[in-house]
Please model this.
Amino acid sequence: MAIKISKKIKGYSVLGADDKAATPAPVQAAAVAPAPVQTAEIIQMHEKLERPDSLIGATYKIKSPLFEHALYVTINDVVLNPGTEHELRRPFELFINSKNMEHFQWIVAITRIVSAVFRKGGDVTFLVEEMKAVFDPRGGYFKAGGVYMPSIVAEIGSVIEEHMKSIGLIHDPEVSDAQRALMAEKRAAYENRAKKNSDVSAPQVSLGTSDIAVTGEGTSFPPSATMCSKCNTKALVLMDGCQTCLNCGYSKCG
Model:
């Protein structure tokens, strides 16, 4: 390799074989590119996601006075990114089974549409509000606990909501300690007043097992209670001249 000399030579010496062996080879600084960091792909829910051979899920029983036989709603979930910090459990499919074949067509339609929405991905919680807003023209009913259901479709939506809460997809608004104390205070005050006013001819005013026998709804609220507009529970009673809910603490007087 030819070397161009641009300065005047002032002296020189000839290197022998021993001198060449003793001279260290020049170190060439090579630019070493940093190794790329291996990161796992985060899988999100989408419609092209293949169904695994096995899924985890839960089955819920719906016993409505509008149906002769109970409905069994099964919701299966897929686990995304298992074993990582991005692990998610998302609903994948829905099945509804019943001995009652009268409404077979719309039940099959609901299962296919809801399952398709689940697999589409994104925010699927809107299904809950849409289904709970369906009203039966013949009128709704009260389920166990005094909660009003406007239709059987609305109760299926309520089941989906319950399942989404269990897997962390929907979060209940936190009830403050002050709100819990207020609810306990209202319930205790009504119970004390009911005990004072109770007599042999009116045993149903207590909040014990007599309520279940009288109402047939399995509730722990007085049979005379009306529906609360806030929590849709039949727990609104008149206290000190003001309508007060014994379930959520709501009061029309503030």
